[in-house]
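Pair request: fold both.
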Amino acid sequence: REMSKQAFAQLAVHVPSAQIAAYKTLQKIISNIVENPSEFKFRRLKVSGKTLQSTVWNLEGGKQFLQSLGFEVAGDWVYLPETAPVLELKDALTGLEVATLEARRKEEELVLDEFEKRRAAEQQVALVERMEFTELPPSTQRFCTWSDPAESDVQLTEIVSCVQVIRGIVQRVVQNPKEDKFKRVNKTAEKLAKIFTHPPLVDLMSFIGFVPDEGSANHLRLVITEQEGIKRLQSIELLLGYIESDLQSAQFQQQRHSIAEWKEKTPTAAPRHKYESTPEGREAWQRDNEKALTASHLISEITTMMEFVWMLQGSEGIQAHFRKEQRKMLQKFKEEQNFEELHHMKADWERRLNAEKLKSGKSLVSTIAVSRHAREDQTDTGSGATGSGQ
């Protein structure tokens, strides 16, 4: 009994998940012997067995627990002699059940603690006010404002990619404020090299707080204070998210403009992919491309609504499997060009977002602000209505 108590104490030191796995295996072993005392096959276990090795034998206290019950080791086998009392095995089963309940309680406490930490962090982010676009350096403001769809889309695509990379850098620092490795970037890295070919984006990096690293000419390091600096980065990250959304919207409009221009001209180039160089083939190519663009635009809107709903619910990490399934479904509908399901999905997430806004009682002005393009459209519409009324 004393050996059994010591073995329980050794097992209780491990993380709850390891304890539960060990107790489950031990309960199975002992239950088989208690229910079939005359069957020798249940009294003999192979030490190299995968389950026994991973859950009991290699765990400190597992081997000792079996030995405390009378199990003996013989080569690659461990067995319980027929003379071992069954009553002690029943007492051990009771002890394992109690230990399992205690381990499950500890595991639930750990999950709840982690959930509360994540929820507190998300609530803190939700309360951060988004930095105004006009606070950015003037060069960056001009660079990230795209209004002429007739211009080449090569630079716009590159700008969207660069803004996404910068936002990712800021996100990693916000999520890991004590990790210095995320506050240091290599200018020569493939994803970062394009950023430093555009002076306005270099100004943006300086505005965020990146300065040359004294130890390396190819690196920049982020200089921020512990508390106020992180709040400022959260505000910048929210603003970059809206800039990215606006640029993607401009990119979509630009692609539509390119398709309209192509339609007006008679193409002289070689046929595109599987489409013949005929009026019918060109029309088919245009229809398919317009469908693909529409699907991408719908998915962008749905993804944005998903992120806001999950942020308001405060369920980061808890619903990881559900998030993955939703994104797989979006990709499937995009490949199938199933616009009916995409529109249904969009309407469903709009309802969820409105429900979460009502439930939380937040106006979400600082969280879900209308994009600059939308505000301009609303201003123009309001002016027109006033003019017609007069």
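--- second member of the pair ---
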Amino acid sequence: MSRRKEMTTNSIYHDGMVVLAPMVRVGTLPTRLLALEMGADLVYSPELIDYKLVQCERVESGIRDGDSIVQYVMPDGEIVLRTNSTEKGRLVVQIGSNDPIRALEAAKVVETDVVAIDLNMGCPKSFSIAGG
């Protein structure tokens, strides 16, 4: 039974909802799908760095277990983000950036497969601030 309520405002949040927060190296597709199966209303990707996302190509890689799969792939073949149709309307992608123009470009890369973008411009982790 889903606790999802009809959203009557522009907010994706509602009282009583369950959200899987963004977690570095943990918020991968299997974890997000498990969270949704266990009742989460929204799930977050791990923080994805804007430099990588703007280089990605969106690749639809077929259907598995009844779900269509989409991958965001770097030119060298690295998969930066993987999602599927189960997450449609419930995935928030967190983008790490220190540049608003590049952040917007990165958001446009994934906009068709996410319900919202969470922009992180202040993460104190060394790999996030090393670029300036």
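Observation on the second member. The two ends are 46 Å apart (CA to CA).
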